[in-house]
């Protein structure tokens, strides 16, 4: 990719993630820019942004960076039987984590109602 794509600031604004977070993702290897400008600025493609958004959606479910990497690797090869097993395992785990998160949000809402009644 030569001087096409979005720069990191634009990607940060579009995804709601910080520039620091995007750089960290590149450092740990879960998403890297598809290219660089001649001046060395990172350039992200639409596919890169889709991957970043997938990561952002995993964050509230408290998946680790290693778990995210494992899932993303599997998602890159959805027709592979081993990858399908990984995807299915993550789907099951995501459902369980989402239910736990919903319970926690319910507790937080209860607390807020109590605090507001004082």
TrEMBL record:
Transmembrane stretches, start-end: none
InterPro entries xref list: DNA-bd_dom_put_sf, MerR-type_HTH_dom, MerR_fam
Annotated coiled-coil segments of the chain: none
Domain of life the protein comes from: Bacteria
HTH merR-type domain segment(s): 5-74
Molecular-function annotations in GO: DNA binding; DNA-binding transcription factor activity
Keywords assigned by UniProt, alphabetized: DNA-binding
Keyword DNA-binding: yes
Matching CDD domains: HTH_MerR-like (cd00592)
Protein name per its UniProtKB record: HTH merR-type domain-containing protein
Organism: Corynebacterium marinum DSM 44953
């Amino acid at each position: 990719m030569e001087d096409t794509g979005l720069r990191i600031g634009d990607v940060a604004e579009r995804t709601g993630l910080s520039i620091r977070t995007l750089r960290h993702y590149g450092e740990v290897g879960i998403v890297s820019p598809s290219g660089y400008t001649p001046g060395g600025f990172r350039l992200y493609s639409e596919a890169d942004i889709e991957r970043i958004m997938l990561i952002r959606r995993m964050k509230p479910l408290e998946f680790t960076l290693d778990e995210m990497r494992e899932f993303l690797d599997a998602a890159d090869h959805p027709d592979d039987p081993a990858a399908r097993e990984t995807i299915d395992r993550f789907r099951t785990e995501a459902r369980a984590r989402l239910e736990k998160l919903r319970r926690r949000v319910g507790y937080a809402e209860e607390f807020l109602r109590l605090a507001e009644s004082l």
